[in-house]
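Issue 218. Parser rejects a valid record. Input:
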Amino acid sequence: MQTRAPTTPFGRRPLTLTHVATQIVATSRPPEKVVHKWKIFQALCTARPKLGVSERSLAVLNALLTFHPETALTGEDDLIVFPSNVQLSLRAHGMPISTLKRHLAALVDAGLIVRRDSPNGKRYARKDMAGEIDRAFGFDISPLVARSDEIERLAEEIAAEIRAVKLARERITLCRRDIAKMIASGIEESVPADWPRIHVGFRAIVDGIPRSPTLEQLEEAADTLSQLADDVLDLLKSHVKTSNLDSNEAHSEPHKQNSNPNSFIDLEPAFKKGRAARPSPDQQAPRGGEGSYPLGMVLQACGDLADYAKDGQISNWRDFLATAAVVRPMLGISPSAWEEAQCVMGEVQAAIVVACILERSATINSAGGYLRGLTAKAGAGEFSLGPILMAQMNARLKKTKTRA
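Output the parser choked on:
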């Protein structure tokens, strides 16, 4: 006589239509179907967000699967496991019984397991005369076999979305790096363009990306940044072509030679050799001299320095350097750190860095340590003032908009 499988849970637990639907799916599995239990569990872990289960619930399911002796789950076998709560808790790394019961209920509600409760609610197996299991009461894991195709499809969808998100983030990272360095190069090479406006637009795109963006938002930002990167590159290319034409005209004039015809190609901000060779031999100038950045642009980015200037006004680089020398000890920068920065960066660039530190003094704990860190980067060829000045200008524009 075939024994009827119980469909209702023991005690006060209610029977919902969702539970009935799960039981229908479990009993309709093809008998010839075979599923590797750890592979389907791995797919479950990937598809977890779309199945509505937590990591802790999957940890309980993992413990349940360890009580099934076979690795293969087939459609024709009896797939009921019957561990006690104490045994299950030990397999779940000592999870409290109350927490264990909550996650078992979550697995049932998610349609991943089915309760097959005994008359008294206990989990056990009854054996026949030959010692084989004749009847078992516990948790039926057959829905994993019946829903294996669905679970694997969801896992593939999520894996594809993860790959797409990763690719979009890679595009954004590459575009951000390219745009930031191209803007810095354009400023340092005096390429004619409205660089502050371009930088503000660049920051607006980056700042517009949400903290937890969707794939659509990432792809939209990546497309926008990619277009901006192409536009900035076109500006640099146009300047290079114009410089080529001017260089060719200069070569065509008699008795004139260009000692460094390829200097315009060096667009990397970290390299300063082209600019270091410009001063005449009898008048040596420090690296990053006055011509590197317009004084008006520096004062626009670091306006707080003027508050410490004589008569409250900075009209030339001499005033700028004198004011930076006044501010330096006020920030707690030691003479040795200041001298090292001037030797490595040059007098003007070191003064500009001090002005930038003054702007951010509220957020910098040790101005001297910060300057030494930038000096070390400059010595290794990994430092450029362009991005710092643009960040300062952007911050001031934001403050102005906020006040307005």
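Fixed in the parser; the record now loads. The mean pLDDT is 80.
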